[in-house]
Every structure is written in C-alpha cells, then in structure tokens.
Design a protein that fits this description.
Layout lengths: L12 H10 L11 H13 L6 E5 L2 H10 L6 E6 L3 H4 L4 H5 L4 E5 L8 H10 L9 E8 L10 H13 L3 E6 L2 H8 L3 H4 L7 E5 L9 E5 L5 H10 L8 H11 L3 H20 L6 E2 L7 E7 L2 H7 L5 E3 L5 E7 L6 H11 L2
C-alpha cells in the first residue's frame, strides 16, 4: 500500500524494455544519438510546435532551474505560488542557476494562483527603480503541489498578466500528463497557446526511471540552453539512455495511458475515503494526488496494517496526509488502503 509519492513506483515495462534495447551496441554520445532525433520530432508533434527546441535532463529540478535561467537575470524576480516545487523543494536551485534571482511567493487557495493574487504580487515588484528586483518570469505548476489543476484558460489568464509586464512564462509539468488527462486539454492548448514559453515536461513521476524534457518554444534560446546544461553538469554522455526512456514514454501515447491509470486510482481513493468516518478532502483532487484529514488515531491503525503515505500537520484531534497514486497503483491497492484507514 504505497501512496507516499508517484516517485516511489518503478519503471513501466515498456520503459524498461526500451532501455534494454538501447543498451545493445553503440551510439553517439551527448545527445547526438539517433533515438534523440526521433524524440525531438515526436515532442514537436505532441506540442504542435515544429520549431521547438527539445532537450533532455535527468531530474525535474534541473529542468526547472535551467528553464528559468533562460529568461531570468540575477536582478529579476520569479513569481510562483508559495507552495510551488521551485519555491520550497529545490534547495535554492532556481536561485543558483539564475545567479541569484529572487523568488516571489504568490498566494491562492488550493495551490493555485489567481489573476488577483498574481496581479497584486506583480504590482508590488519593480516600483523601487534600481533599489529593487525587476519583473523576470512567471512559473505555473500543473498539477499543482496541492493536487489541483489549472485549465488552459486559467493558465492564459495568468500569463496575460505576466506578458503585460514583459515577462516570459514557464510551466512546471512534473505531472503534466496527469494535468492533461484531468482537464482533457491538448499539450499545445496548455502551453504555448496559453502563453507559456518553456515547459518542464515530466517523465520520472509517470513510469520513467529518470528523464525530463525541456521544451523551448523560442528556438533562438536553444544554443544558450545547451551551454547552460553543459556548464551545470546536466549533459549526459550516454544520452541514449535518456532518449530511450522518453521515446518509449511517448510511443503510442503511453504517457497519457499511464497518467490515466494514476488519475483513475486517485479518483477511486477519493470515493473510498467517503466511507472512512471523519475523513474529508482538504483540496479538490481531480488528478492523482490528494490531501485528506481524518480522526486522530487513524495513522497508527493504518501504518500497523502496512499503509505508506506522508503524514501532514493537522489541527488538534485531527490527522492529515498526502496520498499519491501512480501508474502502477491498482484497485486492490486502493481497497487495501481504505480498509486500513477504517476502524
């Protein structure tokens, strides 16, 4: 009963098989492998962006920090929700890769910025002339750290405010596939058609062993990204093992199939929690990650039966948890967890 994170799941069989095939023989290094050529073509098709620059790295932190560095000078600010991964879970990597840009936390219920909360934050910055940081970049996370999702229209409303200030826009898509499945949107609708300039396209949380794509919609930024990736130590020599994962992930829309399974198990868990006395959701849960609270004593009972999840702070007499379903979560897993939560 593993619900700690979608990072806790293994690699999908199709990904593992692709790695085994890639291990045969020889291939050009540093991204010059033939598989990468096919990956680039396929991701351009997925995003309906034939001129997009496409690069692979091994971690989401590298993807985010390098993407932000493309458009953010050291004297600028990056605007993101206060709970965003880049704000609280990347150990200062965005600040490091941008050589010191300031993170500005934007409020909003359920992990989502609103035009009002973002507008207020934008208006607080850039008013002090040389004495203050300047407008730099907007970063939107989808799925959010609260397990909620933005629709393309909601993303567009935020990017319009940023564009009015001359800012570029980034989408942290560590769970991008889950967001598309939850909203029914297409990749292009959620990104460049909604004002996004660069995307961190996640694979690791959704069945890959460790690969993320950075999709840059302005090809003029391609060479700079290549230099930044190499300088930062994130250019793999045996790059074919990144390429092989991403190619298999995209083939036959496996990425969406895996996300659909994870989301379905998230929905099943939401339904199951309705039968747990005292349980309630803390945020809407349209994808594969949810936050819930229940009566005190539930943690000990569930953990004694083998349930694994992250406990969260809660009010006195209550307990809270983050629960995440993955591509490999089954109905039996959900049923067992719900049973473990019950007296």
């Amino acid at each position: 009963m593993w619900f700690t994170s979608d990072n806790a799941s293994g690699g999908a069989p199709q990904i593992m098989a692709a790695l085994a095939r890639a291990n045969e023989g020889y291939a050009r290094s540093y991204g010059a492998d033939a598989i990468m050529d096919r990956v680039r073509t396929r991701l351009r098709e997925v995003f309906e962006a034939p001129e997009a620059a496409v690069y692979l790295v091994a971690t989401g932190t590298a993807a985010n920090a390098l993407a932000l560095s493309l458009h953010t000078a050291p004297w600028m600010a990056v605007f993101a929700h206060g709970d965003a991964h880049i704000a609280v879970d990347e150990c200062g990597a965005p600040e490091f890769f941008t050589s010191g840009a300031k993170m500005i936390a934007v409020g909003g219920a359920n992990g989502k910025m609103t035009p009002d909360s973002l507008g207020a934050a934008l208006n607080r910055v850039g008013q002090a002339g040389v004495h203050g940081v300047q407008h730099g970049m907007l970063s939107v996370t989808n799925v959010t750290e609260a397990g909620t999702v933005y629709t393309p229209a909601e993303v567009a409303a935020l990017t319009a405010l940023a564009k009015a200030k001359g800012m570029a826009c980034h989408l942290d898509g560590a769970r991008f596939a889950n967001a598309l499945v939850a909203t029914g949107a297409k990749a292009a609708e959620m990104t460049w058609k909604a004002g996004i300039d660069v995307v961190s396209f996640g694979g690791t949380k959704n069945g890959c062993l460790g690969v993320e794509a950075v999709v840059i919609f302005d090809p003029a930024k391609a060479w700079e990204f290549e230099l930044r990736r190499k300088r930062a130590g994130h250019l793999f020599s045996k790059h074919r093992f990144l390429s092989a994962q991403m190619e298999a992930y995209l083939e036959g829309d496996l990425w969406l199939t895996l996300a659909a399974q994870a989301n379905a198990m998230g929905a099943a868990l939401v339904t199951g929690l309705q039968g747990v006395a005292g349980a309630r959701l803390l945020h809407p849960a349209p994808a594969n990650m949810l936050f819930a609270e229940w009566n005190a004593g539930t943690h000990a009972r569930a953990e004694s039966k083998g349930a694994m999840y992250y406990a969260m702070p809660a009010a006195e007499g209550r307990e809270a948890a983050r629960l995440v379903a993955s591509w490999s979560t089954t109905t039996a897993d959900v049923d067992a967890l719900v049973a473990a939560l019950k007296p």
